[in-house]
Write a structure and sequence with these properties.
The chain is α+β, with helices and mostly antiparallel strands. The protein has helices at 153-156, 199-202, 229-238, 241-247, 283-292, 300-308, 343-346, 381-384, and strands spanning 26-33, 38-50, 56-64, 81-82, 89-93, 100-104, 108-119, 131-141, 146-148, 162-163, 174-176, 191-192, 220-223, 262-265, 268-271, 296-297, 373-376, 418-421, 461-464.
């Protein structure tokens, strides 16, 4: 097969905590009372916000620090508390008890540093001696309908979704109102898309898309950033030694192999550039990390909702809300680091500056122009069968084992059910529909199954919001 993608303590933050993660996110955990199963987590992150539209959040899980294979510790549904009750924060447990969201509840923009108390289901001798806190910066995507696809000819020619009008012609974006099943056909009112001679890459135009396929009208949280190399290196360090070889990014090929800064030496596994987006990920690499953090893969419908918001601002729009690539300054450097990626740069993010920082309607970062976003595709039966099951925090020999997730085949090349959105920087040639930026609706590789490691392949995960979110 050809390879198409080749062409509020509201004060100063404390110093880094023991569980320091890339960027401005820091966390640590300790047992407060073994017999009662109480844990204290110290947590800080920069540029938090709560506004009239949405907010950011931290997804937090706890593990045995000495046994990465033991799985996450189950949280109780009640009994969590803020140590500083003056902060406008709340702790929102997931329904499955595998983690909690820590999020603001009032208007705010700035840096946060706090300590919280969590109630575990296990108590006494069942608890490990040392705990490890795992945290991911997320963005809350509110529930509600949105416009999927486009009527821009250039997007339609690259597989963009559209609503079918009378006579079978495109009639603008398809309105997703709820999670109901969606008909895919050349009949008025249905969803459809053009494939030309590229059905292998764009999709089979079959359906329906079942009600169980996550469509983006139900609220969810999505990672604020693509997975970073420091986060992936920490994941590797936590795995049992027998599983590391399956997930270690090594023996990479090509002139950009050194842009993956993760290596294993006498001092263990380290990332020389911990804040750099983690490239060279196979689908099995990214799904293993996703499962380990008790998250789930993002669908291509949810990608468009996170990028665009409830309404398409204009035909041929990019995630930052207009149809132009001009003015974007958050771009990929030759090292594959991102310009304007410091905490200070992101402190300037507001609706008036989101073009410059390439932020989406909901302030999700880098949905276009960094590295490719692998998503669950609606363009093949394996993708349409996805029901949004979350990972359980436990791997099988270093592999995700969540039922219903795509997996790499025996050849290590294809993962039926995935696709690619968002484009990537290739440092050469004339910029085109996916290099470096891609319109929100462009699906040139929306059903391509390439699951191997490559310099522009990364990961971003999500989680369905608990019922109490944004209430």
């Amino acid at each position: 097969m050809s390879h198409p993608l080749l062409a509020l303590v509201l004060a100063l933050l404390p110093t880094a905590l023991p569980g320091a993660l890339p960027g401005s996110l820091n966390t640590s955990a300790k047992l407060l009372d073994r017999e009662k199963g109480l844990v204290q987590v110290d947590l800080s992150w920069s540029n938090a916000w709560f506004n009239d539209r949405n907010h950011d959040a931290i997804w937090l899980t706890l593990r045995d620090a000495s046994n990465g294979a033991a799985g996450v510790l189950e949280m109780a549904q009640e009994g969590h508390s803020l140590i500083d009750e003056a902060l406008p924060l709340r702790i929102l447990p997931s329904a499955d008890g595998l983690g909690v969201f820590v999020e603001l509840t009032q208007q705010f923009r700035g840096d946060l540093s706090t300590s919280i108390q969590l109630q575990l289901e296990k108590k006494g001798s069942d608890l490990p001696e040392q705990l490890a806190a795992w945290a991911v910066e997320m963005v809350f995507i509110p529930g509600g309908g949105f416009e999927l696809g486009d009527d821009h000819p250039g997007v339609i020619n690259k597989g963009g979704f559209y609503a079918v009008g009378e006579g079978g012609s495109p009639a603008g974006p398809f309105k997703v109102s709820d999670e109901s099943a969606i008909e895919v056909a050349e009949t008025a009112g249905a969803l459809y898309y053009q494939v030309g001679r590229n059905a292998e890459y764009i999709g089979d135009r079959e359906g329906p898309i079942p009600a169980s396929f996550p469509k983006g009208s139900a609220a969810f949280y999505v990672m604020k950033y693509e997975l970073r190399q420091g986060e992936y290196a920490r994941f590797l360090r936590s795995l049992p030694e027998a599983d590391v070889s399956a997930r270690m990014l090594e023996n990479l090929e090509g002139k950009e192999a050194d842009t993956c800064s993760i290596s294993q030496g006498d001092d263990g596994i380290r990332a020389a550039a911990p804040e750099r987006p983690c490239n060279y990920l196979s689908w099995d690499d990214s799904s293993a990390w996703t499962d380990y953090l008790a998250l789930r893969p993002l669908t291509e419908f949810e990608f468009e909702k996170a990028a665009r918001g409830p309404e398409r601002p204009m035909a041929g729009d990019f995630p930052w809300g207009n149809a132009s690539r001009e003015g974007v300054e958050r771009i990929v450097e030759k090292t594959r680091d991102l310009a304007l990626a410091s905490s200070a740069d992101e402190a300037t993010l507001m609706d008036e500056t989101k073009v410059r920082l390439a932020a989406s309607h909901y302030w999700v970062m880098d949905l276009s122009g960094s590295v490719w976003e692998r998503v669950i595709s609606a363009g093949n039966p394996e993708g349409r069968s996805y029901v949004g099951t979350h990972g359980d925090g436990v791997l099988a020999d270093g592999f995700a084992d969540t039922e219903g997730w795509p997996k790499l085949g025996a050849d290590g090349q294809e993962a039926a059910g995935i696709g690619y959105r968002g484009g990537a920087e290739y440092f050469g040639g004339t910029p085109n529909e996916t290099n470096p930026f891609s319109c929100v609706g462009t699906r040139q590789y929306g059903a391509w199954a390439g699951g191997f490691r490559y310099k522009t392949y990364s990961a971003r995960a999500c989680r369905t919001a608990p019922a109490a979110a944004r209430k």
